[in-house]
């Protein structure tokens, strides 16, 4: 807790130091907070004259990797940011201050347990690029292949642990402040983010992710994933093929190479939907610093993806829900959108569907009345989110990565080709996927998937059938015994003997014993139920021995 307090104080100090008060909506704050912040921030008036985008970038860099990640996401949203801010935040993609080369070399030698001179024919101590979590050096293997060596920043785990602790503190505060805070499920979101960013610290996992993504696109002309050299990869070090391509954010270089920008933008959307719906495994950190373009065929440019540390996946239920929702949006079927939200449990079951439908229509309908270049899908999501607050809609942590990636894709697509119609590009893909899920091809795939399990269970079927028939036979015997007991009871009732009450009690005892005891247990008295045996003996005495 004390660590979180100190970290929070550092954030406040950073806000003051870099005069980030220009980004705070003072009009929405209580008067006492307004005046307090105004007085404190007056300390840095001289710094306030500097470029506000540069101040924001420097502040995020000083706060560490989690805040740098936040800036990377923001940098792709030029439709939401002014150019001066977007230009500065774009520098966070691969221009984070580097740590010394000799430190990187020491980490490599410690993890791979050999001197750099033995591992590589050549190694450059000057980093090729530096990011929030790791930095990259160029090298050459003794076999002649050009490679890049990725090295985790020293002591980064301790810094991230402090930031995560602070985020949990803030999440609990938000959750306890209001119903809106609880609806956002901030603690679950932080937990999901913690899992993601800790995975990013393990380069062995990143290597595994890279290998899987590479297999998924082995025969594709849409995306190339560089090869991993497994013998040189470890938790803090990863060695992979050095690629050659133009950074996707270098629009001038792409235009100079006569790249078909419309095709490039559409292929980016297709890659995203292929990963999500066909592979159920998608690159969830697709900011421009991780994407390059192979321009050897400028009319059909091919993407190159690196940094597979953060990957996302959806189960079949999430994919089906997402596809049906998007198609309903495309078809302007807002009632279906509302029903899907209720059906999935995102909003309470008692939500009035017609009212929710009307609210969704008011947000989405204007989207189809203007060209896409004048509309932001991100703004539509924000509008939907704000509208759904009235219906107690909850944020779904399992879709946070997907939402972030989709926003990145839209921001990147707009940079490449402002007239990109995201809907027209995605709709045919989704319709094809839905038809495949419901057609005979899907049935055959499911049969093929389940066949090994069925084959393993096949030898057990005769035993299962025998057991079922045996149980049915025993059940029939028990029913017959109960029927006989009831018939005997009826006969005794019709006799007017003076000892009828005793015989009646005996018959009832015998009947009860038969009803609660498995007949097989009478063949093995040591396993018979004690209560049932007692009833049987009492009934026998009253019925046979009692005069």
Task: Describe the structure in your own words.
This protein is of the alpha+beta class and 547 residues long. 59% of the residues lie in helices and 7% in strands. The protein contains 23 helices and eleven strands. The chain has helices at 2-17, 31-41, 52-63, 65-75, 83-89, 101-112, 116-119, 156-177, 179-183, 186-200, 203-216, 251-256, 261-279, 316-330, 334-343, 353-364, 377-388, 400-416, 422-438, 440-457, 461-494, 500-516, 530-545, and strands spanning 122-123, 129-130, 134-140, 146-152, 223-224, 237-241, 246-247, 282-283, 291-294, 302-305, 311-312. Helix 3 (52-63) packs parallel to helix 5 and helix 22 runs antiparallel to helix 23 (530-545). The longest helix is centred in the last third of the chain and has 34 residues, at 461-494.
């Amino acid at each position: 807790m004390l660590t979180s307090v100190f970290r929070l104080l550092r954030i406040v100090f950073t806000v003051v130091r870099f005069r980030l008060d220009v980004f705070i909506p003072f009009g929405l704050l209580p008067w006492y907070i307004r005046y307090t912040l105004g007085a404190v921030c007056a300390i840095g008036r001289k710094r306030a004259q500097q470029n506000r985008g540069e101040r924001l970038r420097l502040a995020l860099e000083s706060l560490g990797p989690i805040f740098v990640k936040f800036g990377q996401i923001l940098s792709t949203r030029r439709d939401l940011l002014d150019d001066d801010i977007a230009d500065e935040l774009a520098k966070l993609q691969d221009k984070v201050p580097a740590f010394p080369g000799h430190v990187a070399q020491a980490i490599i030698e410690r993890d791979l347990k050999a001197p750099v001179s033995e591992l590589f024919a050549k190694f450059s101590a000057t980093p090729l690029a530096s990011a929030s979590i790791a930095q990259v050096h160029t090298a050459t293997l003794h076999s002649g292949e050009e490679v890049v060596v990725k090295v985790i920043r020293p002591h980064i785990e301790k810094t991230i642990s402090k930031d995560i602790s602070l985020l949990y503190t803030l999440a609990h505060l938000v959750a306890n402040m209001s119903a809106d805070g609880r609806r956002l499920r901030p603690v679950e979101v932080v937990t999901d983010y913690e899992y993601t960013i800790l995975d990013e610290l393990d380069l062995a996992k990143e290597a595994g992710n890279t290998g899987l993504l590479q297999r998924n696109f082995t025969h594709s002309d849409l995306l190339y994933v560089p090869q991993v050299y497994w013998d040189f990869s470890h938790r803090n070090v990863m060695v992979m093929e050095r690629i050659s391509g133009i950074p996707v954010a270098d629009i001038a270089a792409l235009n100079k190479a006569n790249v078909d920008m419309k095709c490039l933008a559409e292929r980016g959307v297709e890659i995203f939907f292929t990963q999500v719906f066909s592979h159920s495994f998608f690159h969830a950190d697709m900011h421009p610093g991780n994407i390059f373009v192979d321009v050897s065929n400028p009319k059909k440019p091919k993407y190159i993806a690196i940094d597979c540390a953060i990957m996302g996946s959806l189960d079949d239920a999430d994919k089906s829900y997402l596809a049906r929702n998007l198609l309903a949006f495309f078809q302007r079927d807002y009632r279906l959108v509302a029903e899907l939200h209720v059906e999935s449990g995102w909003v309470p079951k008692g939500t009035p569907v017609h009212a929710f439908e009307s609210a969704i229509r008011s947000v989405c309908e204007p989207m189809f009345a203007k060209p896409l270049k004048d509309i932001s899908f991100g703004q539509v999501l924000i509008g939907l989110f704000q509208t759904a607050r009235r219906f107690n809609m909850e944020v779904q942590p399992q879709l946070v990565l997907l939402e972030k990636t989709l926003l990145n894709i839209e921001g990147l697509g707009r940079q490449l080709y402002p007239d990109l119609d995201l809907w027209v590009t995605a709709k045919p893909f989704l319709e094809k996927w839905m038809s495949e899920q419901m057609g005979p091809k899907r049935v055959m795939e499911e049969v093929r998937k389940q066949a090994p399990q069925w084959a393993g269970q096949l030898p057990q079927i005769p035993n299962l059938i025998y057991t079922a028939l045996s149980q049915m036979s025993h059940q029939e015997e028990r029913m017959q015994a109960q029927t006989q007991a009831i018939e005997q009871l009826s006969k005794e009732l019709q006799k007017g003997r003076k000892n009828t009450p005793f015989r009646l009690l005996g018959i009832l005892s015998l009947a009860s014993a038969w009803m609660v005891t498995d007949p097989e247990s009478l063949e093995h008295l040591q396993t018979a139920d004690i209560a049932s045996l007692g009833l049987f003996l009492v009934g026998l005495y009253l019925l046979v021995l009692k005069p």
